């Protein structure tokens, strides 16, 4: 279409629009942008024209946008890295608001009324304040995020809340003929296909009744109920159907159509859920109402750190980092969940948040589940923050006694800025002078009591919880507005899916898999491999401490050319007086990292966040004994570079997988695409059932109505109680 959406405050440009580069440059100048053509833009408010390329740095963006014109047609629009010129995120359209529009219009208008946005039914409250003929000037937050609202006419119509930035991304409106709300088209989330959701497999719910899928046609999904009654659900009303997830092992009766039994059940569960919601709100209310002085905006040091990152950030990483920074700069303590698939860059986001807090004179604590992960984080944090005046230390019960005393003292007097530690951080002798940020890595590995104890060290502390396979409770708390969530769903450039095989244990397959990895590039490179200059490495997961040494000897005999070692969390330590020497575990891991060994026979100790890009084959013996999330975490230890990666999952000879073990192995073998962590979490929920997620008191309710409806009722109860408090 012809680009005609232009006025004195901005213009909208979309793919396939018609506009000449010269005309576009003139309009950008009229909008207040500085033309530095043919130079390179360096800050917000500038644009540059080079042939058919228009680079523009919008004030509200942290990164610039490039508009690629062929002739007079817009062919590409994308955000790009100002240093590498690489594409960060492709766009379908961009709205270019006038540069410095806020100060320009401010003198022209008198603010007649300030309406404080509140959580809950804010749109309805907001509309009730509007008088006929009023002019509403929107800010870029809350309701004002919906740029393009040109007319509002209110009948007795209930609207969804749009004041919360998280909710506004998915909010929609349903209006009758007498109510009109014209909105600029917003990109909403894609409705997953039937195949993706698998809602037609087994039990499903329609209008909150439980039935069983009977058939799927091009026009209808047929759901069967008790006594053979059937309901034909049109495909265009597929949102009425959700997959039933109950409590593992319980038989689920089908509902009867045309009776009031289901309504009574729902009412009973609603009452119980409301009581549970009150408990949740009381738990989080203190943090929601707390205030504290936020940290300042980014310093030159912060920008220097971020620009020194050797990889190109994904758009999700940049977005998550900005969301976390906004939380830290606000006057309310952060309680955010950072969810990202294995190897998607969560640690880098955490490092940036840590450095921002440290520059404000506050301490940061990173809680990790294992000493091995603590050691790796220590090296990584120190490497990234090298050259900046930030003292980073590690604390675990396996450190030398004198070292532990020194670290505890440094935390108390404030001489230590960042501490990375295991459960040792939760000890009674650990005190902080000015704790500002708590990062909980691998959140699902810690109990609620552990996390709540550390939060109580200081009443107002920012909390960032990190998870690769989010536990559904955390996910649903985030979706019900009790916690904020940032999601890393985009794989770093160059990553490849991990080729996964599942089968009966076969020594020959093990031998071939190891040799294929350690002789990457061919046997001719064996000498180079010996010099640690070529070839890959292998994790061999064997989860038996008692037999791990003999398994290492077995693999060494099977592949004589490989350099084999083993490691587990109970390896002996040599103790002299109050000093603990370097542990065998740490020494082995360091040597393996330095490529002195080719194969590491290990327990699940490697499953927590280890990042060794040269290890691109993992073999898991007795895979049927592991949980689905555990298998996914283990597999995620490989494939962390641009090399092809392989995962071989073996079950014992003559063993026939069945039941839950069969479902787990099938799920892990099917979920090989990049970013399948959420799918894994969903599979795990379905296999185990949802009864243990919210405690035994709620498991009966989940069994009665299913997990999806339970979460919906819980969300509604929380919102209802919050609105009641506001009124």
From TrEMBL:
BP-aspect Gene Ontology terms: DNA repair
The keyword rRNA-binding is annotated on this UniProt entry: no
Start and end residues of each Helicase ATP-binding domain: 327-488
Domain of life: Bacteria
A Pfam family this chain is assigned to: UvrB_inter
MF-aspect GO terms: ATP binding; DNA binding; DNA helicase activity; hydrolase activity
SMART domains in the cross-refs: CarD_TRCF, DEXDc, HELICc
Alphabetized UniProt keyword annotations: ATP-binding, Cytoplasm, DNA damage, DNA repair, DNA-binding, Helicase, Hydrolase, Nucleotide-binding
Residue ranges of every copy of the Helicase C-terminal domain listed in the record: 506-686
Name the UniProt record assigns to this protein: TRCF
Biological source species: Candidatus Woykebacteria bacterium RBG_13_40_15
């Amino acid at each position: 279409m012809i680009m005609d959406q232009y006025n004195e405050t901005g213009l909208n440009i979309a793919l396939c629009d018609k506009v000449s580069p010269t005309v576009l440059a003139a309009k950008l100048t009229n909008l207040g942008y500085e033309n530095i053509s043919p130079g390179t833009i360096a800050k917000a408010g500038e644009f540059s024209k080079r042939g058919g390329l228009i680079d523009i740095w919008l004030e509200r963006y942290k990164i610039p946008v490039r508009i690629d014109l062929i002739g007079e047609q817009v062919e590409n629009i994308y955000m790009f890295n100002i240093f590498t010129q690489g594409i960060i995120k492709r766009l379908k359209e961009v709205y270019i608001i006038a540069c410095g529009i806020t100060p320009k219009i401010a003198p022209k208008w008198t603010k007649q009324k300030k309406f404080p946005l509140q959580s809950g039914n804010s749109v309805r409250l907001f509309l009730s304040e509007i008088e006929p003929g009023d002019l509403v000037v929107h800010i870029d937050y809350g309701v004002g995020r919906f740029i393009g609202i040109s007319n509002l006419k209110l009948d007795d119509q209930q609207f969804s809340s749009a004041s919360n930035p998280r909710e506004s991304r998915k909010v929609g409106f349903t209006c009758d003929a007498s109510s009109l709300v014209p909105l600029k088209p917003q990109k909403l989330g894609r409705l997953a296909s039937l195949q993706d959701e698998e809602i037609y497999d087994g039990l499903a719910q329609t209008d909150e009744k439980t039935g069983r899928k009977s058939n799927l046609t091009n026009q209808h999904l047929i759901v069967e109920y008790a006594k053979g009654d059937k309901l034909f659900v049109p495909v265009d009303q597929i949102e009425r159907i959700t997959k039933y997830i109950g409590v593992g092992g319980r038989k689920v009766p089908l509902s009867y159509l045309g009776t009031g039994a289901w309504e009574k059940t729902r009412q009973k569960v609603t009452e119980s859920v409301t009581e549970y919601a009150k408990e949740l709100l009381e738990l989080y209310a203190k943090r929601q109402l707390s205030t504290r002085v936020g940290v300042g905006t980014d310093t030159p040091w912060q920008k220097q750190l971020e620009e020194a990152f050797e990889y190109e950030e994904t758009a999700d990483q940049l977005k998550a980092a900005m969301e976390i920074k906004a939380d830290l700069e606000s006057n309310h303590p952060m309680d955010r969940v950072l969810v990202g698939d294995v190897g998607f860059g969560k640690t880098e986001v955490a490092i940036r948040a840590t450095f921002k807090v440290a520059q404000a004179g506050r301490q940061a604590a990173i809680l990790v589940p294992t000493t091995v992960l603590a050691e790796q984080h220590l090296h990584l944090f120190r490497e990234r923050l090298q050259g900046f005046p930030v003292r980073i230390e590690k604390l675990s019960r396996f450190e030398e006694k004198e070292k532990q005393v020194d670290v505890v003292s440094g935390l108390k007097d404030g001489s230590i800025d960042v501490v990375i530690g295991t459960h040792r951080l939760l000890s009674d002798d650990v005190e902080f002078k000015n704790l500002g940020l708590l990062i909980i890595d691998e959140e699902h590995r810690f109990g609620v009591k552990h996390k709540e104890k550390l939060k109580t060290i200081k009443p107002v502390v920012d909390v960032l919880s990190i998870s690769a396979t989010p536990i559904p409770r955390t996910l649903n708390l985030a979706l019900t507005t009790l916690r904020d969530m940032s999601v890393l769903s985009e794989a770093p450039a160059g990553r490849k899916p991990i080729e996964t095989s599942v089968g009966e244990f076969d020594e020959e397959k093990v031998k071939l898999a190891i040799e294929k990895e350690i002789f990457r590039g061919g046997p001719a490179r064996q000498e180079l491999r010996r010099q640690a200059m070529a070839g890959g490495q292998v994790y061999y997961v064997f989860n038996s401490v008692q037999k791990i040494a003999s398994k290492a000897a077995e693999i060494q005999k099977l592949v004589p050319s490989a350099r084999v070692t083993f490691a587990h969390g109970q390896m002996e330590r040599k103790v002299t007086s109050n000093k603990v020497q370097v542990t065998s575990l740490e020494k082995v891991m360091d040597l393996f990292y330095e490529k002195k060994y080719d194969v590491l026979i290990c327990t699940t100790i490697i499953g927590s966040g280890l990042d060794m890009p040269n290890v691109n084959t993992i073999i898991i013996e007795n895979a049927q004994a592991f949980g689905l999330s555990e298998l996914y975490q283990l597999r995620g230890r490989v494939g962390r570079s641009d090399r092809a990666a392989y995962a071989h999952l073996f079950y014992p000879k003559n063993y026939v997988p069945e039941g839950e073990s069969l479902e787990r192995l099938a799920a892990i073998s099917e979920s090989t695409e990049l970013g399948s962590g959420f799918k894994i979490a969903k599979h795990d929920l379905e296999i185990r059932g949802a009864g243990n997620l919210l405690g035994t008191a709620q498991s009966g309710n989940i069994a009665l109505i299913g997990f999806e409806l339970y979460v919906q009722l819980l969300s509604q109860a929380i919102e209802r109680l919050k609105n009641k408090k506001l009124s």
